[in-house]
Specification:
This protein is α/β, with parallel strands linked by helices and 421 residues long. It is 34% helix and 22% strand. It folds into 2 domains: 2-52 and 209-261, no CATH class; 66-208 and 265-302 and 309-411, Rossmann fold (3-Layer(aba) Sandwich). The structure holds S-adenosylmethionine (SAM).
């Protein structure tokens, strides 16, 4: 279906939004955009990018994420972080670095867990990597408990106060959390101090720009986005010859059977940076996302109001995403770190004891809470819902023997094994 559609997809919208006009100007001046350039503009353009000026989560938004579904998700990750620290870095100061924290719900649930471990809580600082001024404001309200601005936080265009542009590449915002630890905000991981850290990324890598390639009779061609001359909107086209991205990023094995490939160099840079930091300063990481191990191709898609949406229609009004290729990311780690997973969300959360946590919460739950807890548990763990499609992947310092982090440990995962091998 997709090569045929590729030639003919266009925006059916009648009124052009500002971002569409901007994209068309760019294309008119410099030629078709790569899908990566398009994704970057649509999601994070400072003026009208999808994430930049509003709350996009929950029933009133476009999609829901695991931390928003149930507190148990953040609690399991919080326990995982404390457990690794106790096993590997007990007594040492550590930065908790969360990439793409959304509404701050995961960070809030994790900080609540940390407050139950006073020795650990006294050693941490929280570092949030967030490009969106609106979301960083919502995160600050959640994490500080500053309810004065609650009304503003839930409005479509959240207030963007207390943000200072840092000139030295340091944090653009700092607040003391309601649990005690200091919270600092940065635009990129490169700005976060290089210290012993735990890196967490939940549904972050899937928001990073991908390049798309399609196999033709003449060889592999990059998929580009052009103005549709017959309609008002945009359409997919194929580059007539090699592009800088196809030369730099496309590595096709002779046994490749897919005819569509997606490559995410921005995610590779994050994994490379996390690997380098873990090697130099110590630490561990956990990434969770929609993902696969190199068997999927055309996963680029958009979500609007909880439904699939044409990614080229009304750019900036729908979330854009692509499944994470964990086998590609593994290549950007190193033999000198340990890599675990990807394993399914169901396995990770079950291994971490989400079933026991559910039982404990049910004991003091009201009837409404009981129903919420059960449905949240099912949504997070059931293979038909989020249990199978979401995967967990961890990079840690190299340990002796058969050490594997909690959650991964009953699988006896060796350094270079993925779940299926
Ligand atoms: C799909 S949301 C996930 C939110 C949250 N982790 C959750 O699970 O609810 C992606 C998050 O990453 C942020 N983001 C997207 N691209 C980014 C980038 N290039 N740098 C930093 N943050 C980014 C968005 O603003 C948003 O907070």
């Amino acid at each position: 279906m997709w090569p045929h559609q590729m030639q003919r997809r266009y925006s059916g919208s009648t009124k052009e939004n500002d971002l569409l006009q901007h994209l068309k100007k760019r294309i008119t001046m410099a030629g078709p955009l790569t899908v990566a350039d398009y994704m970057k503009e649509v999601l994070t353009n400072p003026l009208s990018g999808y994430y930049m000026h509003r709350d996009v989560f929950g029933s009133a938004g476009d999609f829901i994420t695991s931390p928003e579904i149930s507190q148990m998700f953040g609690e399991m990750l919080g326990v995982w972080i404390v457990n690794e620290w106790l096993n590997c870095y007990n007594g040492q100061k550590i930065q908790i670095v969360e990439l793409g924290p959304g509404r701050g719900t995961l960070a809030d649930d994790m900080l609540r867990v940390f407050s139950q471990f006073p020795e650990f809580a006294s050693k941490i600082s929280l570092h949030l990597v967030e490009v969106s001024p609106a979301l960083s404001h919502i995160q600050a309200i959640k994490l500080t408990g500053d309810t004065d601005s609650d009304e503003e936080s839930t409005s479509q265009t959240a207030k963007e106060s207390n943000i200072t542009e840092s000139e030295d590449g340091g944090p653009y915002r700092q607040e003391k959390s309601k649990y005690g630890p200091l919270v600092s905000w940065y635009k990129s991981l490169a700005e976060v101090p290089e210290q012993l850290s735990c890196y967490i990324g939940h549904e972050f890598l899937d928001a990073l720009p991908i390049h798309k390639f399609h196999k033709t009779e003449k060889g592999w061609r990059e998929v580009m986005i052009d103005i549709d001359p017959e309609k008002e909107g945009l359409r997919f086209v194929l580059a007539p010859s090699d592009t800088p991205a196809s030369k730099a990023f496309l590595q096709v094995s002779p046994s490749e059977e897919r005819s569509n490939l997606e490559v995410c160099p921005s995610a590779a840079i994050i994994v490379q940076e996390v690997t380098k930091r873990i090697l130099q300063k110590g630490g561990y990481s956990l990434f969770a996302d929609y993902g696969h191990s190199g068997e999927k191709g055309g996963t680029f898609r958009a979500f609007k109001k909880h439904k699939l949406h044409d990614p080229l229609e009304d750019p900036g009004t729908a979330d854009l995403t692509a499944d994470v290729d964990f086998s590609y990311l593994r290549k950007f780690t190193s033999d000198t770190v340990s890599v675990f997973g990807p394993i399914t969300q169901e396995k990770f959360l079950t291994n971490m004891g989400i079933g026991y946590r559910l039982q404990a919460l049910l004991q003091s739950a009201s009837q409404d809470q009981w129903a919420d807890l059960i449905s949240g548990y099912k949504m997070l763990t059931s293979p038909e819902q989020m249990g199978e499609r979401f995967k967990f992947f961890s990079i840690t310092r190299k340990h002796n023997n058969d050490y594997a982090p909690a959650g991964f440990s009953d699988l006896h995962v060796k350094d270079d094994n993925s779940e299926g091998s």
